[in-house]
Batch of 3 targets.
Target 1
Amino acid sequence: MRIKTCLAICILLCLCVIINVANGGSACSDVTYVTRDEWNARDPKARVDMVNPLGFAVVHHTAGSECTTPDDCAQEVRNMQNYHMDGHGWDDIGYNLVIGGDERVYIGRGWDTVGAHAGSTFFNQNSVGITIIGDYTNKLPTDGVLRVLKQLLVCGVESGHLTEQYLLRGHRDVRESGPTACPGDTLYPEIQTWPHFLEQCPD
């Protein structure tokens, strides 16, 4: 009887471990990344490592056309990279991560490379810049896209890219090189209701 009881307890413990592991990885398992090779990115001119975990996540919108299919979204990301590299003379696409209307996450500079998205040296070096393809001045992204953004932020914590106490900001909160409406007058109030958003950075 004792052996059966011990065996039953062991099985229950194993099941608990499996469930906990599954739950712990649930956000990341729900995020579909598109690698640079998959969206046919150009090689960066240079890159600077960024130490993780990061204390900030900055949300942007591209303020341009939306996309709904993988082909169209990949083209939008390539267009952004070309504009940033050829128009601005930057080393690569400015954003770390790009969310398309196809509900996939396109890897720009990635979690561990300093971006050029914030208009602030400090935030470029200490935050992940996440942009959503489209203009969200007068409307919100789809529920699916917002869900991907939330999952991506949780995944960032789970995978050690963001601190558990990271602060969520909109581009307009951090830009030092002039005012901006980014991430849009409709999207910005939405992210203000999310966990981790603070009106002011703590001293």
Target 2
Amino acid sequence: MCCCTVRCWSLFLAWSNLIGCVIGFILTVALIFVGANSEMQDERQGMFILNILIPCIVCIINIVLYVLLLVGIYQKRHRLMAVFVYTTIVGIVLGVIVLIGVFIFLLIILKHEFVYSIVVLVVGLICIGIEILAFSPIYILYKRIRKANSVPEQYGLSTNQPLYKTDYN
């Protein structure tokens, strides 16, 4: 069996992103303390804390999502993985909508050069493509576990033991 199975890639992606989110959360909290200790004007300090608290909340949400994903992968429970899968799909769709909006905003409203707007669009599409590429093993594993969990086991008449087991039991 190959060491690069869908499950291994999904675990690698989930663990690496979870570690990245924890590091991001720690750095964000450190920035809050640095900003609170520095001497700033009141309105600038309010904006600083707002700009730091939003990423902090995003980090916490991502940590919860990746923990649910990891528990779902290890326990082979597709319902725990579903939260991550659906939020990622919504994020990809919203990313495409925002990218199109930014492209139109740059091109029509700000009247930037066409080449600059195209470069922004291409870079955004590449980023979304990388996100889809990284998400695909997790989605494939989610579909496999969901299919394996939806197939009912057939039991023998006298022993009440399963006649066959799926790959994920």
Target 3
Amino acid sequence: NADDETAAVLLSNLHSGREDEELGWPSQILCSVVLPKFLSLEKSSSRVLMSATIEFCKIHQRAAEYGLLFPLILRREGINNFICEVISRVLKECWHLGHISAFCQKLLCGRKEDKRRFLFLPCHRELIADDPT
């Protein structure tokens, strides 16, 4: 669809090849352009959007963690098969095993006193739970 192609072009033209800020503009791009599309998936994601997202997340791994994966996993309505496919592909194609292990530890064993730092737009607040329980 045209919106997916627009998002893909935006992602492919905005990655700079380095990540200076953990929660800087790469996270903002993911949470404002890509996350809304994936939060509402009711069918498989388009190839063009998925490919552009994978390439962006390979370069901006921490942005993917806080601006895409945490919010998707904590989706209030749960994870459907299509969202699971997105999460699996990002994890498998963008991260090494050590990073995946650390991510799972943060997700499952996060301390209550630590404020989670994942990002989403205020309009998506009602779609994302505060914790995985």
